[in-house]
Amino acid sequence: MTYDVLIHKFVHPFIVYVLIGSLVSYLLALLMVQFAVIRNARSKALLYILPFIIPLAAYIAYRPFIIDRCTVYGHPLGMFNDWICYSAEVLATILTPLFMVVVFLAVLKAFASIVAGKRIVRRYGFAQAAEYPELFRIMEKLCLKGGITKPAIIVTPDSFARSFTMGHKFPVIVISRGLLDTLDDEELETVVAHELGHIARADSVTTWAMVFLRDLLFFTPVIFWVFKDYITEKEKAADDMVVRLTGRPMAFAQALIKVWRLTPRRFLDNVIFDNFMPHPNLLGQTGVVEFRVRRMLDQDPGSLKDYLPGYIAAILIFMLTMFALFYVC
């Protein structure tokens, strides 16, 4: 396969599908979340995953069959279609060398995050119930109440306050010594419930995949907006699990404030953690602690039956965007 064939038959349609598919699905998601029936954060997080998935699904499904359709004259969209295809061809020619570098770096970073997680396990080992009896008592009670697989626990000696989850098949909660020393038992219970919310939703592996796709689709600004919205709703969904499992929104609000005060704010610390350890962490990447505290105290987390409208909306967005991509491309 020649370089020109790579650009025209592979990179060109990929750019078209991503640019149009991510924008259309994101706009539809923003429209859907305005409806009152889609009120819970879990459904909104699901909708914000779609702009990452749909363009790739369309590319895999459509590219082998309509690869040359863009250049066919007499397309229903006329000059608009010609303009899209010409612009994408120019972008493909410019971005292909950069794209190849970014793919390599994205794979390297994804692999580095896996290695970093394994390094934490090797370095600190798993905590034992005899060492932290109260922590394990809280964990067992919440797992039993929520029907959640009991994860392993790692306690790091760091003096700052931080907690996050990693792993999927064998989930692990990582908690710093500074967090254990700072929170009382009720606040600690809410933090554990928050992390269990991430485990129940498999947020660790989902966030890892989203970070990889965000880097891969760097050429469209929409992806960065969608990723930010996804992170926000993902943290809200885990916050809602706190209320369901513990019924202590005030204690969690206090825990959030304490963790925020003891979280490193140096630029280098945040860059390293957010990029090479892309696991769901207590404060998230948005840092909107005040908003989350207010929401925790004012909002009803809803119930499981509220999820159905979100699934219906996701199906509609998927179908409408796939149709739009087939029609345009």
Describe the structure.
It is a single chain. The protein is mainly alpha-helical and about 325 residues long. About 70% of the residues lie in helices and about 5% in strands. A hairpin with a 5-residue loop joins strand 2 (about 165) and strand 3. The longest helix has about 45 residues, at about 80-125. The protein is globular. It starts with a helix and ends with a helix. The model has no long low-confidence stretch (mean pLDDT about 80).
Shape: globular
Terminal Cα span? 23 Å
Helix content: over 70%
Tell me the number of helical segments per DSSP (H or I, 4 or more residues long): 12
Sketch the topology as an H/E string, one letter per element: HHHHEEEHHHHHHHH
Taking pLDDT < 50 over at least 5 consecutive residues as the criterion, the unreliable ranges are none
What is the percentage of strand-forming residues? under 5%
Compute the gyration radius: what is it? Answer: 22 Å
Report strand order across the widest sheet: 1-3-2
- The secondary structure category is mainly alpha
Average pLDDT number: 82
Tell me how many strands there are.
Answer: 3
Largest sheet: 3 strands, mixed
How many discrete domains?
1
